[in-house]
Amino acid sequence: MKKLQLVFIGFLLVFNFSNAQTVLGKWKTVDKNGVSKCVVQIFEKDGKVYGKIVEVLIEKEKNAVCKKCVGDEKDKPYLGLTLIKNLEKEGKYYRNGTIFDPENGEEYRCRIALEDDNTLQVRGYLAFLYSTQYWKRVK
Q1: What ranges do the domains of the chain cover?
Q2: SS3 sequence of 108-121
Q3: How confident is residue 122, by pLDDT bands cut at 50, 70 and 90?
Q4: Which CATH architecture has domain 21-137?
Q5: With CB atoms 3.0 to 4.6 Å apart as the test, which of 50, 62, 119, 124 could cross-link to 108 if both were Cys?
């Protein structure tokens, strides 16, 4: 009986560890000024990774719409907006996709990776220039 309990506990520990080692889940954005503006749900669909705004944290922006978006997303609420699109796993990185900044209407090449279990490195590229943010996991 004790052996069975140890096996079960071991299984739970391995399962929890493997769950923590993923980019999938909810992440609180943190901009270059240390401000958290929203929560983004990172999810997988058809073998690619996407990120959608699931919560707006700044009160005055809770009902804001994307004025600088183009196409179908123009004038749509920030809430529900897909910021990260089409990332593919390559080793420890997810890349070859894009990230959209609704504040300036620009889309950038994107790469994300786990910095640690609770920190997601999010990097946007424009040619050889880049900007990096470190998002925090929402528990």
Answers
A1: 21-137
A2: EEEEEEEEECCEEE
A3: very high
A4: Beta Barrel (2.40)
A5: 124
